[in-house]
Design a protein that fits this description.
Order of helices and strands: EEHHEEEEEHE
Oligomer: single chain
Strand order of the largest sheet: 3-4-7
Length: 136
């Protein structure tokens, strides 16, 4: 006879980075991580975005993290297909340049994911790294 799986006890705790509450409940697969770090789902998301900044704002898949005017974006390559529907900016051409690039090279992406406005608590660690380029 098989035993029914006992659901794990849901723990609610105070996020150590903001006034919100966190939980160990699996939310998009990260409940254990949120509980381990004692952060809410929002702070967990922004810590993941901070990881992009700490790793050079570029990942091996070709995505680039852009922070423009306190808003966080992520570019996608053609090989990666479309970004998630939520936050997808559209098929228009988006021109940008990196603030630390002395050449001022203008990059173009057609696939841009709007990840949201960076919360005040993270802005000092996630300063703007790019700007939209004017269309010519």
């Amino acid at each position: 006879m098989r035993r029914a799986r006992v659901p794990e006890r849901c723990e609610v705790f105070q996020c150590k980075l903001c006034p919100n509450k966190g939980t160990n409940r699996q939310i998009r697969g990260v409940g254990a991580r949120m509980a381990a770090y004692r952060v809410c789902s929002s702070c967990d998301f922004w810590l993941m975005c901070l990881g992009y900044a700490m790793l050079g704002d570029h990942d091996p898949d070709g995505r680039r993290a852009l922070r423009i005017g306190g808003i966080h974006y992520l570019t996608w390559t053609d090989e990666q297909g479309f970004p998630p529907e939520i936050g997808y900016v559209g098929n228009g051409e988006h021109r940008y340049f990196l603030l630390n690039d002395p050449t001022g090279t203008v990059h173009v992406t057609r696939r841009l994911w709007l990840m949201g406005t960076i919360p005040e608590a993270f802005r000092d660690r996630m300063p703007d790294n790019a700007a939209f380029a004017p269309t010519t």
